[in-house]
């Protein structure tokens, strides 16, 4: 999985980068077919915003989150991505079962 992390009006410090990568590795444990991840961190007034796009076979998963604390934003984001990946995986499995494979 290739991870690209960029900041818009925010410096992506090594601890922030490590935290994002740690959280993304946990997602990869649930869904191992993630090929590329694009993460953008932003600061808008007092809100810390984060957005991620995961490239997976058959499409992409996009989520964003915001909070006063960037680490909390990262947690919210990965929770959303995790739910979407689980939903995608369940949909794939039900499609495979429906075709009799």
UniProtKB/TrEMBL annotation:
Gene3D superfamilies recorded: Ribosome hibernation promotion factor-like
GO biological process: negative regulation of translational elongation
Keywords of the record: Translation regulation
One annotated Gene Ontology cellular component of this protein: cytosolic small ribosomal subunit
Highest rank taxon of the organism: Bacteria
Pfam families the UniProt entry points to: Ribosomal_S30AE (PF02482)
GO molecular-function term, one example from the UniProt record: ribosomal small subunit binding
Family to which the UniProt record says this protein belongs: Belongs to the HPF/YfiA ribosome-associated protein family. Short HPF subfamily.
NCBIfam families named among the record's database cross-references: yfiA (TIGR00741)
Biological role stated in the UniProt entry: During stationary phase, promotes and stabilizes dimerization of 70S ribosomes by the ribosome modulation factor (RMF), leading to the formation of inactive 100S ribosomes.
UniProt cross-references to PANTHER family, sorted A to Z: 30S RIBOSOMAL PROTEIN
Assembly, per entry: Associates exclusively with 100S ribosomes, which are dimers of 70S ribosomes.
Protein name: Ribosome hibernation promoting factor
Species this protein is from: Pseudomonas yamanorum
């Amino acid at each position: 999985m290739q991870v690209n992390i960029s900041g818009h009006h925010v410096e992506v410090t090594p601890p922030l980068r490590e935290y994002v990568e740690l959280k993304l590795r946990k997602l990869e444990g649930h869904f191992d077919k993630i090929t590329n991840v694009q993460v953008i961190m932003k600061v808008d007034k007092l809100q810390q915003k984060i957005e991620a796009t995961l490239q997976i076979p058959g499409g992409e998963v996009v989520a964003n989150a915001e909070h006063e604390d960037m680490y909390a934003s990262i947690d919210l984001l990965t929770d959303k991505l995790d739910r979407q990946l689980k939903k995608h995986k369940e949909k794939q499995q039900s499609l495979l079962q429906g075709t009799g494979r």
